[in-house]
Amino acid sequence: MAAAGQDLTLWMRAESRPTERRAPLVPADVAKLIAEGIEVVVERSAQRMFDDADYAAAGARLAETDGWPDAPADAVVLGLKELPAEPFALRHRHVFFGHAYKDQPGARVLLNRFAAGGGALLDLEYLTDDNGRRLAAFGYWAGYVGAALAVLQHTGALHVPLQPGTRQQLDAQLAMAAAGSPGLQVLVLGALGRSGTGARDALAATGVAITGWDLAETRTLDRPAMLDHDIVVNTVLTTEPGRPYLTAADLAGQPYRLRVLTDVTCDVGSPYNLFPLYQNTTSWEQPVLRVPMTELDVIAIDNLPSLLPLEASITFSGDLRGQLSGLRADTAPWQRCLSLFRSHREL
Predict the structure, then answer these.
(1) Which end of the chain is more exposed for a tag (fewer CB within 10 A), N or C?
(2) Cα 121 to the chain's mean position, in Å?
(3) Cα atoms in the Cβ-side hemisphere of radius 13 Å centred on 259
(4) pLDDT of amino acid 253
């Protein structure tokens, strides 16, 4: 990692996923980092929520899209979602959500790319304080959007393909849908965490009945009680493999009320998955899948906050900005990220 006080260049890449409109840094926070003496380079992006000109006005140097492979060797490449497949060898330090430490599909390939190039993954999912709490997260907005989509699906008001919008627009759609379906029972799992709080906040003004379960209730899960809800929103963060909360076999041969599951956590393909009912994530084009031989619909979109790109980016950027300065001082959260990467790279 960098020595204390060392110059730092942050290179914010353009996202390669077509539906990703969020930014890890918004222009206002870029200006603050530059005021601290940090150089910020921003790749041009036609899909990003914020205009290139706004970053230039904040003092950032603009670069061409996908120029990060040729960035100076000591630059830190900053992004959110997956990297393009090329170049294979990754030689920089990359800060993004790598999804590589829970045996997810593609995890070993990603770690091998870093091994080939000599770079390092500083995974934002594991940027935590001394108590293990994430220092920058989209969880609130993931839960918020996930709960809203579940109600829209249950009430037949989910319009496909999904389109990004504002919180005000989503709230209006949600209120209208809920008003036409009195008596909805919604269970939020992981209710006291960031995502669970977002889910409960989205539902609070709709009049639906909200039940919140957290550690005390999920430690010894009452499956029949869970199935006696119209909607389940799962926001539980797992740190080790455990017994699934629900499988297709649990639904066979018995009546149940549950019709929609939004799996905000999206640990699909991983032994950490608490709802191994499906094999692939869903998308903006196909946001819902039906579990075969059941009456249960699943929403499992792994970039839910990008449906509210403005609000989600502002919140996340405000959290992340203060941590990025720590890359120069090699602060403990970044040391932990690097140590975790090295331990998984060697497996």
Answers:
(1) C
(2) 17
(3) 12
(4) 86
pLDDT digits (tens, 9 = 90+) for 262-286: 999 999 988 999 999 999 999 999 9
Note the pLDDT of residue 103.
Answer: 87
The secondary structure of 82-139 as a DSSP string is PPPS-SSS--SEEEE----SS--TTHHHHHHHHHHHT-EEEEGGG-B-TTS-BSS--H
* Residue 268 amino acid letter: V
The confidence score (pLDDT) of residue 5 equals 46
- Which is it for the CA torsion 89, 91, 92, 98, positive or negative? positive
Write the DSSP symbol of residue 9.
Answer: E
**Which amino acids are annotated catalytic?**
81, 99
Q: Give the β-pairing of 297-299 and 289-290.
A: antiparallel
Compute the distance between CA of residue 261 and CA of residue 270 in angstroms, rounded to an integer: 18
> Are the beta carbons of 117 and 128 closer than 8 angstroms?
no
Q: What b/e readout covers 53-74, taking b as 16+ CB neighbours within 10 angstroms?
A: ebbeebebeebeeeebbebeee
Mean pLDDT by 10 residues, the chain (347 residues): 67 97 98 97 98 98 98 98 97 97 92 97 97 96 98 98 97 96 96 98 94 96 97 93 94 94 94 94 97 97 97 98 94 97 87
Asked whether 69 and 87 are in contact (CB, 8 A), the reply is: yes
- Dist. CA 184–CA 326, nearest whole Å: 46
Dump pLDDT digits (tens) for 137-171: 999 999 999 999 999 999 999 999 999 999 999 99
